[in-house]
Amino acid sequence: MKRSLLAVAAGLMFASQAHAFEWVDDSISYWYGPYFKMPGATSPNHPNGNDVGLNVIEFTHTDGFKYGTNFLDAQLLMSNRQDPANATGHQPQGAYEGWFVFRNDLSFNKIFKTDKFTFGPFSDIGFNSGFNWDAKNNYYASGEFAVRFGPSFQMKVPVGYWQVSVGAYKEFNNDGYFGPTSFHWTYSVESSWNIPFAVGPVPLSLQGFLSVIGPKGNDYTQPTKTEVLLHPKIMVDIGQLAFGKKNWIEAGVGWEYWYHKFGANNSVGGNIQSTPFVEAKLHF
User: Fold this and answer.
1) Of 184, 131, 209, 191, which Cα lies nearest the Cα of 155?
2) What is the C-alpha separation between 15 and 63, in angstroms, rounded?
3) Least enclosed by CB within 10 Å: which of 110, 135, 151, 200?
């Protein structure tokens, strides 16, 4: 109930700002990678984790309003049979996962109507808060709900943006074997970027994000470790290149590296992930 109320409160805050958006960017993406890992999804031939092919459909919303920005990301992740759904009988099917992220970033320059928070390497300083929600139908049956908040820093870049935020993080989750888990408060570091550039006539951008979450206590008998998720990608602005229309159609390649995935320690196979991926994105 508490989790539902938090989600509703965030939704109401988001809706209340809808009439005051200064700009909006909505997109839908498809991306695929062949070598994802899932902690605990191992086999005799792959003790360090099965290679899981993952198809992802992703909706992203970003907007600017009077006092800052909002970011919303919803993903449907579809695994192959190397990460099977729970109780699928003699011919297992791949698991499905829903992932939802919301972040609100308040700008001190905008709130206080000043430029005093622009100095040194920073174009602005603010406050970042939000939550993650996740559910999956594999053997672990994860049901994550996590909150985080802390200061944020907009870094000066010639074009585009680069943001870094640090803060406190608290996660609740579910373990298919042992039941609900309430982890300890810990630290988190998040960064995201989108830096346009060009190589000759080809319009490109370096996009991506970084997430670091500190040890969050025991996952029952197993101590968790610091997890690091890095997701950079190079995207080509196909719409501008082929049709003269910027920020419409993009395609590119990236790499996702996840160390101690979900905080799993080295005794759990599949805790280190490294995979290339391809992506296509449509803005509307």
Assistant:
1) 191
2) 12
3) 200
Task: Retrieve residue 209's tokens.
Answer: 């994000």
Give the span between the Cα atoms of 234 and 255, in whole angstroms: 9
If you ran DSSP here, which 8-state letter would residue 261 be given?
G
Backbone angles phi, psi at 72, to 5 degrees: -135, 130
Return the SS3 of 28: strand
CATH at 84: 2.40.230.20
The whole-angstrom separation of Cα 282 and Cα 284 is 7
The domain total for the chain is 1
User: By C-alpha distance, which of 161, 142, 157, 144 is closest to 71?
Assistant: 161
Residue count (the chain): 284
What are 106's strand-pairing partners?
68, 127
Q: In the chain, where does DSSP find H-type helix?
A: 2-16, 108-111, 238-243
Residue 256 domain boundaries: 20-283
Q: Could you read off the pLDDT of 111-150 as tens digits, one per residue? A: 999 999 999 999 999 999 999 999 999 887 889 999 999 9
Give pTM, 2 decimals.
0.90
Q: What tokens appear for 281 in the block? A: 């994105």
Question: Which two structure tokens, joined as six digits, stand for 111?
Answer: 């709130």
- Closest by alpha carbon to 33, among 281, 279, 280, 276? 276
Distance CA 173, CA 143 (A): 5
Give the up-direction half-sphere exposure of residue 264: CA atoms within 13 A in the CB hemisphere.
21
Does some domain include residue 79?
Answer: yes
d(Cα 28, Cα 240) in Å, to the nearest integer? 18
Q: Which whole number is the average pLDDT over 64-86?
A: 95
End-to-end CA distance of the chain: 35
pLDDT tens track for 12-31? 455 445 557 999 999 999 99
